[in-house]
Design a protein that fits this description.
It is found in: Nucleus. Its main location: nucleus. Pfam families: HhH-GPD, OGG_N. The protein is α+β, with helices and mostly antiparallel strands. The protein is built from 16 helices and ten strands. Strand 2 and strand 3 form a beta hairpin. The protein binds a DNA duplex through helix 6, helix 9, helix 12 and helix 13.
Length: 407
Amino acid sequence: MAVRAAEWHKLPIALTELCINTTLRCGQSFRWRKSAEDEYSMALHGRILSFRQDATHLHYRAIFPSSLPTPPPSNAPSVVSDDDTLALVQHYLNLEPSLVQLYEKWAFADSNFKKRAPKFTGIRILRQDPWEALIGFICSSNNNISRISGMVHNLCKHYGPLIGHIGDEPYHDFPTPEALADPKVEAHLKELGFGYRAKYIAKTAQIVAADKSLAWLEELCNPESPVFGQEPKPAGELELGGREGYRKAHDELLALHGVGPKVADCVCLMGLGWSESVPVDTHVWQIAQRDYKFGKGKHSSLTAATYTAVANRFRELWGKEAGWAHSVLFTADLKAFSERVAAKTEVKEEVITVKKEEEDGTEKTEDVKKIETVKRKRVKKEVDEPEQQVVEVKEEVLTRSKRRRAR
DNA sequence: TGATAACCTGAAAG
DNA sequence: ACTTTCAGGTTAT
């Protein structure tokens, strides 16, 4: 019992290999919440998992439902050997590939990547639960990260099992297909503000629960990168359109209601471990036009053919982990991170003449050079981040009080 | 195959 | 205060 209690553990890792502050907030997973300053938490595999990070280590903690504040029996064995949290963390964060090496490879092949990546290091593709990824990205259509996060949170709150609390905050795991297949779900989700996505979610859940199965979905995984607890197997050679298993997974997902090419690619990349999958959304389409010469002639608009051409081009350029590289440029394009690109440090400089009435009736004049440094994060609550605004005001007195006669 | 409209919502921008 | 646009798209015609 004592071992299962909420204790922090640490894992040595450089920020260039993993940056949770970017990776957990860049629109891959919609379920991480800020549980304290510099701390992210989420229910996963029957426990609440929390992360912190410093320059040299990732710190993690698991809170299990059973870890109540009951004293352990006096002569109970003090070691529990079945705590798989370390293995779960390594699996979920996909820590195997060397990100630094991959960045070097992409930078060598692509000058635009080389230019944009330095401010966005440590972005890693997570290995999320396929079912959660599927429903999460169905929610993402024509939507923003803040609202998607709220919707996914509502799904968990109303249909997912309660795992535990941090403070007063309850943490629920993601609901099963069966839970979301209930006939009342669609109407309820509409009340909760899901809009037209309510029908997509309900239909998809009903089909997966009744006709297909979770096993069906999990079998679409990249065998090199299976769900937690399964042994990896080889997945074949990369082709321009992606490996065969990737194309099969993409095809099968397209049959689901509310799943188009972009959502299918998100599920392939972030839920099924197909690293060559390149979701082409509005951002990526903008990037393709701005930096990769798309948007003219044959590919002047984002049709199905253009979609494939863009994805193929990026696979050609970046190789087997094209989806990982794509995620770096995607994040660099997000408004929530725009202050890094612009290094938004406005420096206002103005000289102000301050007049003060002295008690003795004289007037004191100071010319003050006021330097304001304003740093602001423009987008509010993408996760739960309060708008941070640092205003430093330095005043340099240029001219010492010149005394004048009172009138 | 390629265009176009319709689809929910809510915060930001004008 | 009010209208339009935008947000990690998909479906139907």
